[in-house]
Amino acid sequence: MRRLSLALLLLLLSNAVTAKTICVFSLIGAQGELWQLMTDYKIAAADWGENIALRVFTDERVAAEDLKAGLCDGLLMTGIKARQFVPFTGSIDSIGGLHNYESLRVIITLSAHQKLSQSMRHGSYANAGIVPLGAAYLFLKDRHLTSVEKIAGQRMAVFENDRAQILMCERIGALPELSDVSNFSAKFNNGVVDIIAAPAAAYLPLELYRGVGTKGLVVNMATAQLTMQLIVRDEQFEQDFMSRSRQFFASQFDQAMRVVLAAEDKILFFYPPPDKDIRRYELMMNESRNYLIDQGVYDKNMMRWLKKARCKVSPARAECGNGSEF
Amino acid sequence: MRTGMILTLRALLLLTISITAHADGPHDVLSRYRSALQQQDATTLAALFRPDATIRIVIAAPNEEELVLTLTRDQYLQQLRALWRFALSQSYDQSDIHWARHGTSTEVSLRQIERYQLFGETLTQDAQVRMEIGADNMITTINVQTLDW
Fold this sequence. Notes:
The complex is a heterodimer of chains A (326) and B (149). Chain A has 326 residues and is of the alpha/beta class.
């Protein structure tokens, strides 16, 4: 009996020791759609022969440090954060990179394809899956300051870990207010900043409607497509697992989009840019994208793929016949 | 006497048919539009619009350039749903209704005063609305000229 108990204990310990730790960045902790997705992922991974333990972080910076320190074997993080680990996939979340969800679907489907598997790796890390978080929209406190020219001079919250946002903010003449994901919404709601960029998923949980109030506006034009990406320590997982993992995440696209669209449906004062400013907004996105590529912020290989995706989905776009590289 | 009664009945019948046909037309569209707004019925509203309908909103404010926004049907309906979700004690009053025929389409203009409470503020939106209804009795365009709230 004692031997049996000891054997069982050893078996349990063995499982605990061999379980890979996948950390999950979630602002709302171990709950909600994202956590449910990772719970489903854990079950799927068990079918693939990989024992996964999930660990949640509400602070993305701390989670990333744990990944670097080897305390996490993988981390589900924002695409912006993922750029420092795998620049190729981290550039999906580029300003002006993808204009709609169909083009994002093309890229995520492609990322799960075997032919891109080498590009999905960078140094010690690899991308094991991508799921949409929703487009980033500009939230403004004053709807009469929506033109690109009038944005100049306004204070804008930019994430300090995203050089792209800082550079773009400076380029359009707005005043950057360094922030992070834990404080940008409070700064907007309390009037410290006049503009933020955020996905619809943040609207209700972070009460962004307070910042918009009755005088503001949310510009219904995607500035970037945001994603959540699973970045893992490459040596910890077999290639077969990686392939299955990417395909798993790609298969979750429609479900993730249902959540995104449901969140977008709730945004009040969600208007397209004023008629006279639509073309200027499009130009601003394109120019910002090209500027940031020149500055080395985005991976050029991914930027070529993004253009292919934009043109596959919307071949009538002017850029699709002008021979431009990005 | 009998002939007179028959004529009266025929006249009444014709009048009834006329009213019924008229009720299925643009007047009925407006009636259903007004009713759906009051009842916050997005499904009924959606069915009144052509899928490619456009809603043009011009917001005027003192010392500010006019804000001109063009929404698709889906964007317009989304905004109504969002407003209904957040606003309290919302009411719509329409008055000064005028009709005009333009070929096969009908234009109706009216004044619409919308009142609601939003984020602790009591807001009133006073707008001039022009609605175009196609020969298929579906709304093709709405133009709204409003003062900023």
